[in-house]
Amino acid sequence: MSVRIVISALALVLLPLAGSSLAQAQDSVEKAKAVTEENGKHLDADGNPTFKIENGTVDWYTFSGYRRYHSDCHVCHGPDGVGSSYAPALAETMKNMDYGTFLSIVAEGRKNVGGGKENVMPAFGDNKNVYCYMDDLYVYLRARAIGAAPRGRPPKKAEKPQAAKDHEASCMGG
Question: How far is CA 13 from its chain centroid?
């Protein structure tokens, strides 16, 4: 009996702390704000890849992420990251997912079992069409998650930077 009381008291103390850390982890327009730019790639204050959308024009990496998402991810996760009966809505999930976790899940895959159902996210670490563009996927889904990028193909995009061309040639082996 006393063990249950101790566990209940501990849960009451720790639960608010867990809630506050979740609130702090949630991405926002302010956290995603581009503060630096390196060769056309935008970074937030923490050095994570982010997007830059001005006057309806998306940066190249966000546009590339849109293209890559719709070539490899939307089959399971639905168009524009809105989810499906098979896989979660990434536009929602990404609100609470940091960059490192995203990279890990995409590269290594993930298996969730619950409610009598098994969901498997395959590993894409060996798929160059995904692996070489993980930052692009991240910034596109980040923009979708916080509402900066609407559904559908971005109407205008920035030119592809030379650094993106060089990275693509190097990563794809061309």
Answer: 31
